[in-house]
Amino acid sequence: MIDKINELLAEVNDMKAKNAEELEALRIKYLSKKGKIPELMSDFRLVPPEMKKEIGIRINELKDRAQARMAELREQFAISDADNSDLDLTRTAYPVQLGTRHPLTIVKNEIIDIFSRLGFTLADGPEVEDDWYVFSSMNFAEDHPARDMQDTFFIESHPDIILRTHTSSVQSRVMEVQKPPIRVICPGRVYRNEAISYRAHCFFHQVEGLYVDKNVSFTDLKQVLLLFAQEMFGSDTKIRLRPSYFPFTEPSAEMDISCNICGGKGCAFCKGTGWVEILGCGMVDPNVLELNGIDSSVYSGYAFGMGIERITNLKYQVKDLRMFSENDTRFLREFESAN
Ligand code: PHE
Fold first, then answer.
1. In which band, very low, low, confident or very high, does the pLDDT at 264 lie, cut at 50, 70 and 90?
2. Cis preceding linkage at 251, omega within 30
3. Tens-digit pLDDT profile for residues 93-114
4. Which residue CA neighbors atom 2 of ligand 1 most closely?
5. CB 55 within 8 Å of CB 43
6. 246 close to ligand 1 (CB < 6 Angstrom)
7. CATH fold for domain 103-338
8. What is the pTM of this model?
9. CA-CA distance, 116 to 47, in Å (whole number)?
10. SS3 of 220-270
11. Is the Cβ atom of 115 under 6 angstroms away from ligand 1?
12. What's the mean pLDDT when you consider all of the chain?
């Protein structure tokens, strides 16, 4: 009897099971009613009384050991089951980190939104342009310095083909195919041959505005720009127009807004003046209307052009223009909440 118990104890200690089914087979083999251990119990009757105590203890030990060993084996499955539970094909996907909108896009959309509420529709044109749309149709004299290599990127083999230096080229593209009333804004990228630094880049973005109709006056222009400035920078923003010159507008002006960083008190951004320039504007030069097939004795118009980077800097105080095109996600993610 003792030998049998020892033999079973060795078997029990050596029990192995790779899965729950094998474990169940072991349980049946050793512990079920007809299993090897209960079988020992039935032989127990035959044990001489003086040995009953010892044998009884040994059988109980064997049973305990068998149960403990099975629990050990079961635990291993539990762990590997837990491993498998990672592979739950019904669960939803891990949250995908969403990208953020580029600050220039955020501001561009805001500009578009303000002007669409005033009835402006979107227009666009190509970035690779020819001299006519960028310069000639915009009333630039043949020898105007802006045509100079300093400012304009020319295609070497085709000096007539250039990268547009301003979105005013879209004015001409629109007038060519549309009769007044015309009320469009044209956002887009422009290129200038400048050395790249924190305050200048060889490409940047503008939004052009053009309104051509009967009886359009400078007052209309001023009112629209005031409304824009207040929508963009807050209702207490003031504007100021300074006389200027552009070949395609007459009269021309540059518009400043009260510095929204210091509230007009004077700071480093506005160089202590309390004002910052944000756009160029003016009444469309009658020559431009004529060059683009619109009768300047019937129609008049205004136009304006602003740099999106400039507006974005004012809103978000980005000190280095290069940040806009470096695609550093740490910078871009800062605009997450502005989306
Ligand atoms: N095209 C001008 C520039 O790039 C801006 C402008 C647009 C000025 C329309 C007047 C009217 O500086």
1. confident
2. yes
3. 777 778 889 999 999 999 999 9
4. 305
5. no
6. yes
7. BirA Bifunctional Protein; domain 2 (3.30.930)
8. 0.73
9. 103
10. HHHHHHHHHHHHHHCCCCCEEEEEEEECCEEEEEEEEEECCCCCCCCCCCC
11. no
12. 90
